[in-house]
Specification:
Elements: E1 22-26, H1 29-41, E2 46-50, E3 63-67, H2 75-91, E4 96-100, H3 113-124, E5 129-132, E6 140-143, E7 146-149, E8 152-153, H4 172-179, E9 183-187, H5 189-192, H6 196-208, E10 211-216, H7 221-230, E11 236-239, H8 247-253, E12 272-277, H9 282-292, E13 297-299, H10 302-306, H11 311-322, E14 328-331, H12 336-346, H13 348-368, E15 371-377, H14 379-388, E16 393-401, E17 404-410, E18 415-420, H15 429-437
Parallel strand pairs: 1-3, 1-4, 2-3, 4-11, 5-10, 5-11, 9-10, 12-14, 12-15, 13-14, 15-18
Antiparallel strand pairs: 2-16, 6-7, 7-8, 16-17, 17-18
Helix pairs in contact: 2-3, 6-7, 11-13, 12-13, 13-14
């Protein structure tokens, strides 16, 4: 297996500033900021780019996260865009690569996690990779290859109702095996608890047995640290952001990274504030209801949008009257029964696109009103909003809640963005996030 440069200690002694070390491919925008936040916490100066970039990366950056929209794309398109991202990251000189997907393994029986991971491995010329979506800080744990959300199996959690990627099987060995052309094995908790050396031995044994992947159990951050340590010489790591916890220390231990104590510092951004939500997750719906107890909100309806009603104009007129008095929330989120009714009338993809497009146009209108601090809930929504606002890249700041940092949107007029995966964040996340920047 090819080794990344953590073994190349001699050349590092000659340079005072870290060069690009880790290249990451995230299958959605909020997943990208989730991973980038973890790397910043470990002292890596991290930039998230929106799609495959065209220009150069600033010289002070240690890690780059290419955020795609490949989680719910057609499989062939997801593979093509992921390979394009990998090609760019390799040309940029990255020493190790990370394929980031959701901590709830969001996918369908056909993909896209398995097909994309297979394609990345083929392109890198490797035959083995670990898969670990565990994120204990957000109550995602793996035991005996089964993914838990809190104290429930994934298949019993709210993810079973996800409108695009319903997760009805918690056995990730089986789920990944259905998606990949490679055999999938397991490194159980009993091995992980013994530390990095035992995990490396298990990796070697799995490869000898013909496994292309292993699902690796993890129930706490200590497990994730030793998994990262065991994978220091892997060219490709796949998983959620949690397994990236140990990667900065690998580079530092090898003398390749000079950890930055101010990696999370961002300049202040002044202006009005707003929350936009397209996520229909249980967590986001609860956060919306919490907000509505004391603050104003405006709900979009995909059925009305489909009929041609100008809800974008209505929402902006509503916001214009209130924005100077404090943050506003505009949302297309709904409970599962409402989502199902809209999908039955409009189709799954069409219903989602209508809300996504409306929220992206609303974001542009709010920007024109002077909103410079946006909290956005939902991976698809975040991607649409970021693109609509003309943001080319994100500088990653401090975490608000595990997996969700404030970021600085790089454009002519900077904008502060908190991009939240639907299932992440505390009940008062929206208020907490805006309280940090106001």
């Amino acid at each position: 297996m090819p080794h990344p440069a953590p073994s190349a200690r001699s050349e590092v002694k000659e340079r005072a500033v870290s060069q690009l070390l880790l290249g990451c491919i995230a299958d959605d925008f909020t997943g990208g900021t989730d991973l980038a936040s973890m790397l910043v916490r470990g002292g890596m100066r991290t930039l998230q780019v929106i799609g495959v970039p065209e220009g150069p990366i600033p010289p002070d950056i240690d890690a780059v996260v290419v955020a795609l929209k490949s989680r719910t794309q057609p499989k062939d398109q997801a593979v093509q865009e992921s390979l394009a991202a990998l090609e760019w990251l390799r040309a940029a000189g990255c020493r190790q690569f990370f394929f980031k997907y959701c901590s709830t393994f969001d996918s369908t029986p056909e993909g896209n996690i398995g097909p994309v991971a297979d394609a990345l491995m083929d392109a890198l010329g490797i035959d083995f990779a670990l898969a670990c979506p565990a994120f204990p800080e957000n109550k995602r744990t793996l035991y005996q290859g089964h993914l838990f959300v809190g104290d429930m199996l994934l298949s019993d959690s709210g993810m079973r109702h996800h409108p695009l990627t319903p997760m009805t099987d918690a056995n990730l060995v089986r789920v990944l095996g259905q998606q990949s052309k490679r055999e999938v094995g397991l490194v159980p908790y009993s091995v992980v608890a013994q530390g990095a050396a035992a995990i490396r031995e298990a990796f070697d044994a799995a490869r000898r047995a013909g496994k292309g992947y292993v699902i690796v159990d993890a129930i706490d951050n200590a497990n994730l640290n030793v998994i990262g340590q065991a994978a220091a010489d892997h060219m490709l790591i796949t998983g959620g952001s949690g397994v990236a916890i140990g990667l900065p220390e690998n580079f530092a231990r090898a003398g390749l990274l000079q950890s930055s104590h101010n990696a999370a510092e961002l300049p202040p951004v002044c202006g009005y504030s707003a929350v936009l939500s397209g996520s229909c997750s249980v967590a986001t719906n609860d956060q919306i209801e919490h907000w509505q107890r004391s603050r104003p909100s405006f709900q979009l309806d995909p059925l009305l949008l489909a009929e041609g009603r100008d809800q974008v104009g209505e929402a902006l007129a509503w916001a214009r009257e209130r924005i100077a008095g404090g943050p506003v929330l505009i949302y297309g989120s709904a409970r599962p029964d409402q989502v199902k009714a809209a999908q039955e009338r409009l189709g799954v993809e069409a219903a989602g696109r209508l809300v996504e497009d409306a929220l992206s146009r609303i974001a542009v209108g709010l920007d024109e009103l002077g909103v410079r601090q946006f909290v956005v809930a939902g991976g698809e929504t975040s991607g649409a909003v970021v693109k609509a606002l003309g943001v080319e890249a994100l500088r990653i700041g401090a975490s608000i809640d595990p997996g969700v940092p404030w970021t600085l949107g790089v454009r002519q007029v900077p904008v502060a963005l908190a991009l939240k995966s639907g299932n992440f964040g505390s009940l008062d996340f929206f208020e907490k996030a805006l309280g940090q920047v106001q």
